[in-house]
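The freezer alarm interrupted the setup, so I double-checked each line after restarting. Inputs confirmed:
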Amino acid sequence: MRALLEVNDLNVFYGKLQVLRGVSLSMEENEIVALVGSNGAGKTTLLNTIAGFIKPKSGRIVFNGTEITDSPPHSISRMGISLVPQERELFPDMTVLENIELGAAHIPSAKEKKQENLEFVFELFPRLRERVNQKARSLSGGEQRMLAIARALMSNPRLLMLDEPSLGLQPSLVLELFSVLETLNDRGIAILIVEQYVHNCFRIASRGYVLENGEVTIDGYCSDLIEKPEIRKAYLGV
Amino acid sequence: MSLLEGVNLTKKFGGLVAVNKLSFHLNEEEILSIIGPNGAGKTTLLNLISGVYHPDEGKLIYKGQEITRHGPDSRCKLGIGRTFQILSPLPDLNVLENVMVGCLFGRRAKLSIREARKEAEKALEFVGLSKKAEYSIESLTTLELKKIELARALATEPEILLLDEIMTGLAAHELEEFLPLIKKIRDSGVSVILIEHVMKVVKRVSDRVIVMDQGAKIAEGDYEDVARNPEVIKAYLGEAYESLA
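Predicted 3D structure, all chains:
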C-alpha cells in the first residue's frame, strides 16, 4: 500500500539554529498519527514544513505520490493538506460564515462540494450555525477553535493537521473535540495531531512519534508506546 | 481578614454581562483557582483585579483599602502582580533585563539599576533560570518563556500573583517542573489566583476553587467538592472528564 504522506530525512534551520534533524515520518491513507514532544522540540515546525510555510534545507516530502517539498502552501492545500494552526489565525472582523467559506476559496474541488461541506461542518459544530453572522472576534476561545477546524475542513482535505487543538479548551470541549476527530476519521480523513492530552490522543491514534530536540527518538504503535516507561514518565505523567 | 475581597462585581461590554454580581475573597498564602467554560468571564475577572478594567458596579478591597478605581500600575505598586495568557517578553532586552523591568516598576521603592539587577538575579534563581540570564529572548523555549513571565511578575514583589493560563500547553514532564514553583510561591507568603483549564493542574495545586459560568459564581470549595457538583459537570467538565487523565 502506498503511503499517503512520506517525510524523509528532513533538516530544517532557523538561521544557524537547526530545528529538525533528519526527521522521517510516514502516514497511511485514513490513519491518525500523534506527534508528541516537549515545547521547543520542533513539532510545530514539522507541521509548518509539511504545509509548505517553511522550506527544509534538505529532505523530501511526498504526498499521495507527488513530491511537495518545494511546493508553495496554496498548492499544497489544493492537493488536500489542511492545517489548523495553534494560534487559530482567524479573520477577527469577518463573520463566522465568511471565515468558513474562505476555507474553500481558490480550491476548485472544494468549491464544488462547498454546500455539502458547509452542511457537514454545521452538523459537526451546531454552535457555529447559531453564530453565522457574528464576527469571529466575538466568539469564545472554544468557539474560535471550532471555527478554525471548520474552515480547515472546507478545503476538503485528505490530511488534516492539528497543532494542539485542545489548547485553552474547557474539559467538556476537549472530549467533544476528540470525538469530532474520530467522526472525521470515519469519513476517510487522515489526521496528524500534536497534543498534550497524550492519553486521549493515543486512544484515537494508531501510531505515534516522539520528537525531542528536533529528532524522532521513538515511534511505533500507540498501544506499544503507552507501555514504554520513558513515555509514561515524560508525556503521560504517571 | 481576607487579603483581597471583591464585592458584587459587575462588568458589562455593551449588552454582554461578562462578570455578573460576583463576590469572592482571597486568603493569605492561598492558591485560589478560577475555572469555568470558555467565555465565562474568568479573564475579565482577572482584569478587574489587576485594574485593566474598572467594574461598572461593586468594589474591590485589598488589605482593608478600597482599590476599585486604581489603575493597573498603581495596583502593581501596591502588590498585585500578574502574568499574561499571551506571553509578551520585551524582545530586544535579554532575559535578565526583562526581569529587571519587573523590579523597576513594581512594589519596591525606587531601585538603582544595580539593585534591580541583583533582585532580578534572585527572581531568575527562584525559577531556575540563572544560567540563561544573558541569553536573548528569541533563544528560549516556550517553557523558559513561561518561567521568565513568572520571574518578571515575581520581580514586582507581589503579595498577590495572578496567573492567567500560565501552564497551558505544557507537556506532562514540563508540568512536573512548573507545579512546584507555584507551591513555592505560595509557601514564600504570596497568594496566588490561578486560571487554568487543565484539571490535573487545578486538582494538584488549588487550596480552593471558584467556578464561574456566564459571569457568575456557580460553585466554590475544594477541588473534590466542585468536581462532584452536578452543575459544574454540566456547564464545564462534561460527564467523562475523568478520562482526561
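Quick read of the result. The interface with chain A takes residues 36-39, 85, 141-143, 165, 168-176, 197, 199-200, 236-238, 240-241, 243-245 of chain B (CB under 8 Å).
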